[in-house]
Write a structure and sequence with these properties.
about 200 residues; alpha+beta; single chain; Nuclear Transport Factor 2, Chain: A; five-stranded antiparallel β-sheet
Length: about 200
């Protein structure tokens, strides 16, 4: 997956009336420039990666919807505390999964595909390609238009090489939930995150 996953973190504050494809283009360019300029990120500093995610990704992602979709029907039975823990552990998992890719950013560029959407659409898919050495890599985003405070387009799923991230995790999470329940899934995610952290150390 190389640097593709890193672009999942290509997020910054956006204007409410910014078109979804313009948003993705601006954020993708911004994150590539940020990573190239940050030697700590390129060296794999997980703290810097977390800071990048917190400042850039979270304001522009419906992370609750992303986590709820990955957890599936069991999300509705989860207590508020369980939902909070699931979001926290899922975020850490994603950050650590893609942190290695961040250090590999060099000369990649983003090519935008034409947006097929009408002005009234509330959900769209923005299709892009990451171009560098080797074959172009497909990277698509699902976004929804959100009303009210903090209104604007929010990402809630990402497609790398034809595989949607949420659906990939949903099948993994379903097996854990069926075997051990929601608390078991939380424990498994927490343990996986601890193991990943130990590997980095």
């Amino acid at each position: 997956m190389s640097v593709v996953g890193a672009l999942f973190f290509s997020l910054a504050s956006q204007a409410e009336d910014e078109a979804p494809d313009a948003l993705i283009k601006r954020l993708s360019v911004d994150v590539l420039d940020t990573i190239r300029a940050d030697k700590s990120i390129k060296a794999g500093d997980i703290g810097r990666v977390v800071a990048l995610v917190d400042s850039r990704i979270l304001p522009n992602v419906n992370f609750q919807r992303m986590t709820a979709s990955a957890v599936g029907p069991a999300w509705r039975q989860a207590t508020p505390e369980q939902q909070k823990r699931l979001q926290e552990e899922f975020k850490i998992l994603l950050v650590r999964t893609y942190s290695g890719a961040l250090s590999q950013v060099t000369d990649q560029t983003i090519s935008m595909r034409p947006l097929r959407a009408s002005p009234d659409d509330k959900e769209v898919i923005v299709r892009t390609e990451v171009r560098g050495s080797g074959d172009p890599i497909q990277l698509d985003y699902r976004l929804e238009k959100t009303p009210g405070q903090g209104a604007g387009w929010k990402i809630y799923n990402i497609n790398v090489l034809g595989v949607w991230l949420v659906e990939t995790y949903r099948s993994q999470f379903a097996q854990e939930i069926n075997a051990k329940g929601l608390d078991g899934l939380i424990a498994t995610l927490s343990e996986r995150n601890r193991a990943n952290a130990a590997k980095k150390g």
